[in-house]
Design goal:
mainly beta, four-stranded antiparallel β-sheet, 19 strands, globular
């Protein structure tokens, strides 16, 4: 991977993430944190953090504090943070944070707090905060793209009847208060892959677009799981 300064037309040195300390270091995705201080590499929902030199754009492993919460015995000194799936990043109180779905192989409690399905991690020091709790369905995709409405994570949930937020789109405050806004049911099986909802808010957070096969709890108005459509929630009304 490389870091590119698009304003000044500058490219940093190539950095290989192939020696990440895992048995399989295949990269799923790479992203730059909103402040530009860090790069995050996700390897099978196991994110690790790299520092970006602001002058040379060179990358180096960002060691997380010893003893911070981890999953499957990974070493925080290698830049590893608490594992998250389908994550997105934003800024909170000047710090880069990442919010993602709970992974089943991670500890169920951190510092005595039960982990819900949506979890926030601060990149600089791996501080972990559960944003939701209760008898939830499994969280699915997460978006923090409401740039003009900061402080909210938009979450879609799998269809798991009897569980809180099953097959729903919600927004949850990322400050740990537990405040939630519930918008709609997605009416989608989330299978095959293109039927996964991937709910994304507009910049102001007042409209949300998502995909759906409209083939769950739809009565006589069911669609076809092989022909997913885009739907928009308008929260201004």
């Amino acid at each position: 991977m490389v870091v590119v300064d698009m304003i000044n037309n500058k490219v940093g040195p190539v950095f290989s993430a192939s020696n990440c300390g895992l048995s399989n270091c295949t990269v799923d995705w790479v992203s730059v944190s909103p402040t530009g201080k860090f790069a995050v590499v996700s390897t099978h929902d196991q994110p690790h953090v790299y520092d970006i030199n602001p002058n040379t754009l060179a990358l180096s492993t960002h060691p997380e504090p010893a003893g911070t919460p981890e999953c499957q015995g990974k070493n925080p000194s290698g830049g590893f943070i608490f594992d998250l799936g389908h994550a997105d990043m934003t800024i909170e109180n000047g710090d880069d944070v990442i919010v993602g779905q709970n992974r089943s192989w991670c500890p169920g409690t951190v510092n005595g707090a039960t982990m819900g399905q949506v979890i926030k991690v601060r990149l600089k020091d791996n501080v972990v905060t559960s944003l939701t709790k209760g008898n939830e369905a499994q969280a699915h995709h997460i978006s923090l793209r409401s740039y003009d409405r900061p402080g909210w994570a938009y979450v879609t949930y799998y269809n798991i009847p009897g569980k809180l937020y099953s097959n729903e789109v919600i927004a949850v405050k990322i400050d740990g208060s537990g405040q939630v806004e519930r918008f709609t049911h997605t009416h989608s099986t989330a299978a095959p892959y293109r039927n996964e909802e991937h709910a994304v808010p507009s910049r102001d957070g007042m409209r949300i677009i998502f995909a759906s096969g409209w083939d769950v709890s739809c009565g006589n108005g069911c669609g076809s799981s092989s022909n997913p459509q885009a739907y928009v929630v308008d929260a201004r009304k």
